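Predict the 3D structure for this chain.
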Amino acid sequence: MNHSIAEYERISADVVKPAFDKYDKDGSGGIDKEELAKLATDLGHPLSDEQLKEAIIDLDLNCNGVIDLDEFKRWYFAGLKPYDGTKRTLLIL
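Done. Predicted structure below.
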């Protein structure tokens, strides 16, 4: 197995999945708006209701209303960049 793939899988299992599970409080397999609010606050970037709605739109690639593990991984490996709210994008910390 390629070293990069092995490292991705290790980080996914050892770091990303536990972080996802920490915020998926109800164990539904998705981070909803309220759970995202807690995550954003813990990252030091509390979001307004409007910012949360827009962040869900940006992060929820399959448009089911929650951030699933694959979408969370994508965000995590992009650097968990906080949502600014002034534009529909993720910005560097």
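The domain at 3-77 is CATH 1.10.238.10 (Recoverin; domain 1).
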